[in-house]
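Dock fe (ii) ion; give full complex structure.
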Amino acid sequence: MDWISTEKHAQRMLDCYTAQDVFSTAGVLLVRKNTLIVSRHIRLFRRHGIKSIPVLQTAPVPQQVQRRLEKIDPSIGEKYEEQFERMTAVFTADQLTRRQKLQDALDYFDTLLEPIRTSRSIFRTMQQLKGHDQYTYRHSINVGILCALIAEVNGLSDERVLEAGRAGLIHDIGKLFISEDIIRKPERLSEEEFREVKKHPIHGADMLQEYETIPYLHSAVLSHHERLDGSGYPEGAAGEQLSEAARITAIADVYDAVTSDRSYHQGATPFTGMKILEEEMYKGKLCSILGIPFLHYMIRTYTGTQVLLSDGRIGHVVQIPQAHIDQPLIFTSNQVINLYEEDDLFIEDLYDERMTLSSDDEAEGER
Ligand SMILES: [Fe+2]
């Protein structure tokens, strides 16, 4: 159970459940235990002068997607939920049904990618999902979406975009063969456990070999942890040995791993994610030919977004300088702040749009 301030970090409560009944100072029950917190609850807490709230775990990922997208495009929420179930089915299937379940998940992914490609900003929502539960399924879907985006911003054909998406979706399929205890372990892994996890690309590639799946997917599964300078695993392959699919999947995988919540750390902001991608490209580990157009796309996407600063202020990103991607210029309180020139100020998080109230939400009243 965590206590979250209703003032400074209130947006972190969204998508969490209350851990206890919450009473006003006069003893009136305001919100019951196990209620999913939405923006109107936060207003209610503030109105009653409640300084902090005990929260439990976050809502399941499909539910978060539904809630975030219900006003933008509810059909994507439903499709995401269906995709999530199909991924769960792949990872929990027995040997007899696994191949069919995998095919189902791959086939369905085209249906999910289509609306995301036409309304790209939705991917920002997907990237903000909270919690580390069911990480492998969410990570698979996120990496699939990111791979398709990378292929698209690089001008690849529609067919290659879909293939890149499918490759991303199943890149970690080999984790099926790693013990659940290791995959779900909340703490950092021991050296031996990490050695075990590092076998997942080979397990995944062996499995696809049996299914005679197309080479594009096979190379992404086998080589998404390889690096262009030969420093990756499992084979230490380098340079020209790495296919386009493996290079795209590596970029998407690093970005999502850095920006997603894990059991042992809270996800970094997209700005930090971009900075890390840039550094890895600069060191010659990730492919800059495919990665730079993606970085430019991300810079355009996040220019204009609202962010929460470490001192509690909210501002708009007005410019993301290429030289300091993680320290953009922020407009707040009628002034522009250059984060590069501020020693102790940084972006804490993206500001959740749901904290800005709509009239519908207001009309629902207190519950
Ligand atoms: Fe992996």
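Observed: Residues 179 and 197 are 9 Å apart (CA to CA).
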